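Entry 14. Structure prediction run on the chain below.
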Amino acid sequence: MALEGIEDVEAMSVKAGVKMLELKGFEILEEDYRKFVVSRDGCCVAFCRVLGSRGRLKPVSESDREALVREFEEAIVDYFKQDGVEPDVAIRLDMMNVAVIADDRAVIKHFINVCNER
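Output returned:
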């Protein structure tokens, strides 16, 4: 199957990102929670935004990063309001930059704790 549109690239990027997190030993809690992959990494819950593009890694500007932090802050509040979600855990924001090369191939950069000042 050949890549058709941007939706395919985004879906393939998330799929590749989830697979990479699983290979790193993360437990996937949600694959698409408000555009974040939510996972458990030891005693920490990580919210990972996957940025995908076709054929190249997407540059991330400071304004992109600021918008990502705002979205993260909104998502964590809503996520921890849900019933059954463990409330007393460390939380962090990760980001994955994914370049989809082909249907079965991607280049992935995983940035851990991108807003470590919080």
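Strands lie at 27-33, 36-41, 44-54, 90-102, 105-111.
Filed with the rest of this week's runs.
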